[in-house]
Each structure stands twice: as structure tokens, then as C-alpha cells.
Amino acid sequence: MNEKNLVAQALFNALDGALELEQIEKLIEKPKTSELGDLAFPAFQLAKVMHKSPQLIALDLCEKILPDGFEKVVATGPYVNFFLDKNAVATQVINEITEKQHNYGDQNIGKSRHVVLDMSSPNIAKPFSIGHLRSTVIADSLANIYQKLGYQPVRINHLGDWGKQFGMLITAYKLWGDEEAVKAHPIDELLKLYVRINAQAEQNPQLDADARQWFLKLENGDQEALSLWKWFRDESLLEFQRIYDKLDVSFDSLNGEAFYNDKMAEIVDLLDAGGLLQPSQGATIVNLEKYNLNPALIKKSDGATLYITRDLAAALYRKRTYDFAKALYVVGGEQAGHFKQLKAVLKEMGYDWADDMEHVSFGLVTRDGKKLSTRKGNIIRLEPTLDEAVERALSQIDSKNPSLKNKETVAHQVGVGAVKFYDLKTDRTNGYDFNLEEMVSFEGETGPYVQYAYARIRSILRKAAFTPNFVTFTSLPLEAWEIVKILQNFSETVKRAADKYEPSLIAKYAISLAQAFNKYYAHVRILEENDGLNNRLALANATAIILKEALRLLGVEAPEEM
Ligand code: ARG
């Protein structure tokens, strides 16, 4: 229950069913100044239903509303102004968190239905890019958020492990490959081969023809092609796995593009049966003019299938396997056109569940204000970058808290957490500039700042040997009320983050809670031995519980000490 619910419920009881609870909630507003109370209800709408002036209705309501939970309720013109009984609210919120612990804010909106998240999805034999990092951490957080709302998340890594680039790679490997080198540094070596063959194919069309040939062989199950493909894939996956271990992210499925190889004939048949296929310059397309989109290219002239064909098969497979309530594709904004086409083709096939698919797009990362570009050498290599983040965290810990036990573990939690947090606090569709120093800083709106607030509270609670118990507040300094207000907004924030696919709302929430606590800490002597001690500790404890839970939703750990 938050303050809005409290007010809505009181109005609902007083109104005898003149408006639905939900309608009432929508009408409640925050007054311009706190002199007008904590919340206000305008009576204009009711005036139309009740054929009375809003001023009169406001006066009537004030008389009927029961005082429980309010300091006072007054009519100001056409408005009913509510002044909350802050002590009552604090008592309720803090006790509820003490009781429910990290389950505070859990909701059962999802009723255990599946939300499938298409996430990470790097391409075999190519480096794991910063875009893949964004996809990984945003989707992982959304999965946690949806789980808290009662959905069952399914994390799917739709690996880019199929396509003509494998024909290119096999051709290159057969010409210039070195087994030992590939084993030692798979992605580096494979990338070199890939770059070399692409450059040469521009001059030498025979190489391109060879590559097509190899990919066709692969699609037709040729043994040699398959075993090379499998080897490239396994080696690349080993390398990706190291990154996933560092990020502490795992998947329910690694069914990538190749998995759908034997499921594409059905798609082509279904499209054909629906009369949706058209020949176009030897290739086969679905016309999407009526959606104002370019045609979707389903099959090339040589019969090879394409990215979108595999995505069509994947969507159908996921619907059949998981009967998803939602399917989220967490993929960079540059693929917006592709996902529009994908949904449009599925709609044309008569699948209304295409409306439950959402392209959750995100913006580009730059460095020093410049676009990243492999060609211009402006690249961020993820593994060494994560290691550097941990190093930086370690050196800060060394100077702040040199005697800390298990420093390495904490440095890992802080360093990696910092990179994730920085990404997640950015509004998803915006990009950001990659700056490790800023990310790992203990000051500012960073992960370490939030983690530090948590660790500080935990240390206070340890010092006081606090054991959770139920409390009654009878006085509340302003700084404490600020904390209570934020705490009671937690459920609503989780819900909004899910509706908007915006983990940034949780990250910003965590920052404001940590800031509110630090203000409180600066103004109030928490550990002073007097009557209020137990209440202050209970407030601090509730703050720690929610800080940790907010960080968990972001996939960031909360060390007990740092
Ligand atoms: N592998 C692709 C890339 O790196 C992303 C795949 C996104 N998912 C999908 N179902 N198309 O660009």
C-alpha cells in the first residue's frame, strides 16, 4: 500500500461507489506546494456525475472521510487536500518491509506466464561488442524485474551462428587457416581470417562464389562444413563464456540461428500456403508495402535462407514452446527495421500474438564522444575492460579500507557492478560515453555509490547488534520522511520499469534512496542511545533491504563491507 492507495481507498469508501477505485487513483495529484498537503483530489469529474458544484462535493467528502492514516483532510475550493499522518505511514511501511524482507514489492501480475527475452546474441567468430553487453545487462535486469512481477523469464541467447559469413570463414580457413592459432585465440584468429577474405573477395569474385558454395553445403548438412562450423562455434563460445562468467549472467537457452535450420522449410511452406510469397529477381520475398516497409527477403536466388527467415522460425518455435505472454527482443536501435518487418510478416501469417513481441531497442555507446569503429581502431575490448574496472575498484578499496577481508571478491562485485549500473541507469534509448573512471567512482550517480550506502548501513546495524522487530513511529524528522516516501514507491517503480522496459527507473530509484539515506545519516545521530534508537535502526534496516533488492534487480551485487 502506498500513499496514493491510502488516499484512493479513503475516497472510495466515502464515495459509495460513485467512482471506481482505479478511476480515483488516476485523478489523484501532487499539490504544487506542501502547504496544500501531500496529495490532492480534484472534484470536477464528480461534479458532472453528481450534478453538484465541485466546491460542495469537496466539503462533503472532507466530512465523510475517516481520519485513519491522516493528520487532516481539508477542502480548498474544488480540491480535497490530504495531509498524511506521517507516523502512521512510516509505521506501516517499515513494518511491512521488516516482515516481507526482499519480497517487499513482489506482485503476481504475471501469473507464472512466460516472458521470453532474446538477449546478448553475439556473432560467432566476431568480437563481443559493447552493444552485446548492453543487450545482456538490460535484458538480464528486465528478466529479474518481470520475475518480481510474477512472470517466468526465459533468457535466450540467439547466437549469430549461421549465415553466409560461415561460408566466408570456411573458405578462408581452408586457404590460410592455422589450427593451433585458432585454438589459442579463437576470436582474434577467426576475425583475422574473416577480414582477410572479405577484403580479397572484393577483388576476386571467385572467393565470394566459394563462400556461397560452402554455406549451401553447410545448410545441406555436408560433414566437413558442419565439423568446421561446430569447431568455430565451440571455440567462440568458450571465449564468450568467460565474459558471461565475469558478468554473472546465464541463459536458459543457447538456441541460436543454426538451431532453426531444420525449422525453416515449414516457415517457407506456411508463407507459401498463405499466398504471401512473391518472386523478385530470382529471390523470394514477402511484400510489405501495406505496412510501409521494404519487402522481407525470405530466400536468396540460390535457395539460401536469411536472418529474417530464421527469426520467423524462432518466433514460431518460441510461441509453441513457451506460449509467451511477451517476447522481448533486446537489440540495438539500428535493427528497428528488421523487427518491424518480422512482426509484419507474422501478422500477415495470421499470428495475432505478434503484437506481444516488442523490440526493446537501445542507443549507441561512444568513447571520447566518438562512434566506436573496428575499422578506425576505436574499439572497446570487453574482457580487458572488465578486468580494468575490477582493478580500479580494488585500488579504491585499498585506499579506503585496506584491511577489508576478501578484497578480490568485493572488487569484482564493485568493478563489474559499476559497469552494469552505469549502463542501466542510462535511459535505454539514449547512448552514453564509455568512461571507466566515472563508472567506478564512489561519488556521483554510480553503482559504487549505492553499494557504499548499503555497506554503510550494514556496518551500523552490525555495530548496534540490531535484530529486526516491529516498531511504532511517534515522531519523524524530515529526512526520515523522505526515506519513507521513497520506500513506499518501490512496488510502483518496479511496475513502471516493466511497463516501459526501463531498468533505468530502478537504477535512478536506488540512487535517490541512497542519497536520501546519506542525508539522513548526515543530520541524525542514528546510534545515539535514546528512545528513538530502535526506530532509527529499523528505518535503516528497511532502507538496506530495499537498496539490496533494487541492486539485485539490476544484476548488481551488494557487498556487506567495502
Ligand atoms: N546477432 C545479432 C547481432 O549481433 C543480434 C541478434 C538479435 N536477435 C534476433 N533475434 N535477431 O547483430
UniProtKB/TrEMBL annotation:
Q: Which UniProt keywords apply?
A: Aminoacyl-tRNA synthetase, ATP-binding, Cytoplasm, Ligase, Nucleotide-binding, Protein biosynthesis
Q: Which residues form the signal peptide?
A: none
Renumbered ranges of motif 'HIGH' region:
122-132
Point out the coiled-coil segments of this chain. none
Q: Which domain of life is it from?
A: Bacteria
Its EC number(s): 6.1.1.19
Q: Name one Pfam family in it.
A: tRNA-synt_1d
Where in the cell does this protein reside?
Cytoplasm
In Gene Ontology terms, what is one molecular function of this protein? arginine-tRNA ligase activity
Domain DALR anticodon binding residue range list: 450-562
**Domain Arginyl tRNA synthetase N-terminal: where?**
5-84
Reactions accelerated catalytically:
tRNA(Arg) + L-arginine + ATP = L-arginyl-tRNA(Arg) + AMP + diphosphate
Q: Name one GO biological process term.
A: arginyl-tRNA aminoacylation
Task: List, alphabetically, the GO terms of the cellular component aspect.
Answer: cytoplasm
Q: How the protein assembles, per its UniProt entry?
A: Monomer.
Homology family: Belongs to the class-I aminoacyl-tRNA synthetase family.
Would you tell me the protein name for this molecule?
Arginine--tRNA ligase
Specify the species: Lactococcus hircilactis
* Record lineage: Bacteria, Bacillati, Bacillota, Bacilli, Lactobacillales
